[in-house]
Amino acid sequence: MKLSLSYEVKPFKINQQWGVSNPSVYSRFGFTEHNGTDVALGNDSLVYAPAKGTIIKSSNHPTGGGIFIGFLLDDLYTFDDGVTCHVLVDYLHLEKVIALVGTSYEVGSVLAKADNTGFSTGPHTHIQYRRGEWNGNVFIQRDRNEANNSFDPTPFYNGYFAKDSELVVNILGKIIETLTKMIASFKK
To answer: By percentage, how much of the chain surpasses pLDDT 70?
Structure first.
């Protein structure tokens, strides 16, 4: 399956791209390039699930990522380099975690409220994507690079906002229900 992601915040305005080199800032954390995508706070400051997945960790690192969560996408994804693996998404600098560790969430579910905790230059959502294997207890990273073993998620965004997915699902459900009734009436 190919990775397809909905935007986690609305609007989706990138403040800093993945992979920007800044050794003087990032070397204190053990890498030299920006390990995520920084997105301006959304209208409601909420972070929504970009795909179906499960919260596997939630913690606070006051001098680094601040309050953060790890969201493991449920499916295995095949990438252009032939690698098939899991994807772990970390959301950093949060004000409050809303989702519960060990709980599965659908696209568009509220996961957290973004803010400015930890080592941060201002309110935003820091989103870090990593490829790897999940054995049920430990996430084993697949890649090694100067961006803290992460990858750029921007080519995988599908153009839809996760926040709107519930509305789309409800509309599609009503359309299917109506079509089912119409087909049933034609069969009579």
So the answer is: 92
CA distance 85 to 79: 8
Chain-wide mean pLDDT for the chain? 91
HSE at residue 156, side-chain half, CA atoms within 13 A, is 19
C-alpha to C-alpha distance for 161 and 57, rounded to whole angstroms: 24
Smallest CA-to-CA distance from 16 within 43, 42, 34 is with 34
Lowest mean pLDDT segment, chosen from 7-11, 30-34, 40-44, 150-154: 40-44
The full set of domains in the chain, from first to last, is 5-187 (2.70.70.10)
Which residues are CB-neighbours of 86 under 8 A, at least 6 positions away?
Answer: 72, 73, 76, 77, 131, 132, 133, 134, 139
Cβ atoms within 10 A of the Cβ of 183, count?
9
